[in-house]
């Protein structure tokens, strides 16, 4: 049905070693280690407040210097700098820019005299059309629904075209049908990239992940790992997947809510 999520490390794997972090006088991680597999979808599950987003911030290099202990690097010791694109829970759209200009923001932030630009306009328009936003290219964020804003942020992240992609609940604002469509489109666009995604939905993890990691609190010392036998994207009606869902729910129930 499934196997423990282990595999001989590859040189591009992201290695987190001895990670310890406290926040507002509460210890969140203590001597935590995890191997995030390159070229695969690594999905993090855990109860609310367990520290999933903090771990993503640490990988992205966004935690203040000295705020944590441990090392985060690729096995080949390569720096993660400039390799990562990150989609946060908040869409972070600039309110004075249109949808199209928001997803092309990298061209403004990193101007270059080279042609073509970092992100081609026609590529951005094509992706927005695939995301169901083709009729809204000139709209401003304050005119959009929550789901449309989230899809705009997703487009911006995909257009970064970085080898490592961090996704913090990227489909949470979408209805069930749109969510399934966006999952498939995103999986296609990120083929062979190293993806680390947070979700609160075990079924979403089972549909998309090559490797599932469950963080158990209140102080996270380890991650329980699972790797379904079949390849994503999976049929959630598969009896083996339904059985593994029960296992994941049982594992999650062992953790205490921290907020």
From TrEMBL:
Domain ABC transporter: from-to ranges: 9-242
PROSITE patterns according to UniProt: ABC_TRANSPORTER_2
Coiled coil: none
SUPFAM superfamilies: P-loop containing nucleoside triphosphate hydrolases
Membrane is among the record's keywords: no
GO molecular function: ATP binding
Protein family: Belongs to the ABC transporter superfamily.
Protein name: ABC transporter ATP-binding protein
Lineage: Bacteria, Pseudomonadati, Pseudomonadota, Alphaproteobacteria, Rhodospirillales
């Amino acid at each position: 049905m499934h196997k423990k999520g282990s595999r001989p490390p590859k040189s591009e794997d992201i290695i987190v070693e001895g990670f310890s972090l406290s926040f507002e006088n509460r210890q969140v991680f203590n001597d935590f280690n995890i191997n995030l597999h390159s070229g695969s979808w690594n999905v993090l599950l855990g109860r609310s407040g367990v520290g999933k987003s903090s771990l993503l911030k640490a990988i992205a290099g966004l935690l203040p210097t000295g705020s944590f202990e441990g090392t985060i690097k690729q096995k080949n010791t390569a720096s993660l700098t400039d390799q990562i694109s990150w989609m946060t829970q908040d869409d972070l759209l600039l309110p004075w820019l249109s949808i199209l200009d928001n997803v092309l923001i990298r061209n403004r932030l990193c101007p270059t005299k080279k042609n073509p630009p970092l992100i081609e306009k026609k590529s951005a328009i094509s992706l927005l059309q695939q995301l169901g936003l083709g009729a809204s290219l000139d709209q401003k964020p304050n005119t959009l629904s929550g789901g449309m804003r989230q899809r705009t942020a997703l487009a911006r992240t995909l257009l970064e075209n970085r080898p490592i992609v961090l996704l913090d609940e990227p489909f949470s604002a979408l209805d069930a049908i749109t969510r399934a469509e966006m999952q498939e489109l995103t999986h296609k666009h990120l083929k062979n990239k190293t993806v680390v995604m947070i979700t609160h939905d075990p079924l979403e993890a089972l549909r998309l992940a090559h490797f599932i990691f469950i963080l158990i609190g209140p102080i996270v010392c380890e991650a329980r790992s699972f790797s379904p036998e079949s390849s994503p994207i999976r049929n959630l009606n598969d009896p083996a997947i339904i059985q593994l869902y029960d296992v994941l729910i049982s594992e999650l129930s062992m953790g205490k809510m921290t907020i």
